[in-house]
Design brief:
Layout lengths: L29 H9 L5 E3 L9 E3 H16 L3 H18 L2 H13 L6 H22 L1
Helix pairs in contact: 2-3, 2-4, 3-5
Length: 139
């Protein structure tokens, strides 16, 4: 008589799934296919200030430059910095072709800049309050 030594606790459970019972693969729409084919995912965006047509720049270095420019404009006030950096990022993003915007938004998000009109609207309240306070101090 032959016996098998099978440890019931560690044995793999039998699958109740039948062969060929996999879920069907969803087909992508034309728009989704176009975006996947044309979206720039290498971290570079079009340099809109370059004289050379088609010149690209690293999205991270571009966002860093925008942040430095906003820092120079804001002095020591965080509210001004947030508003200016968001305004500069939105302005640059509007000038970019659509396929480059994803890389730019990801790089800005990594630097803590939210590139959206909602973020600009949220930052506008504290900015206006600070500006009113600064105007009162100068008068």
């Amino acid at each position: 008589m032959n016996t098998q030594n099978v440890n019931v606790k560690t044995a793999a459970p039998e699958s109740s799934r039948k062969m060929g019972d996999e879920k069907p693969v969803q087909e992508r729409s034309r728009a989704e296919e176009w975006w996947l084919a044309n979206l720039r995912l290498d971290g570079f965006v079009l340099d809109i200030h370059s004289d050379v047509p088609g010149a690209v720049i690293s999205a991270e270095s571009l966002v860093e430059r925008l942040g430095e420019h906003a820092r120079r404009l804001s002095g020591l006030h965080w509210e001004i910095y947030v508003t200016r950096s968001t305004e500069l990022a939105l302005e640059y993003m509007r000038a970019l072709p659509r396929e480059d915007r994803h890389a730019f938004i990801d790089a800005a998000y990594a630097w803590g800049i939210s590139v959206s009109y909602d973020a600009l609207e949220r930052s506008q309240g504290p900015y206006d309050a600070l500006m009113a306070e600064l105007i009162k101090e100068t008068l």
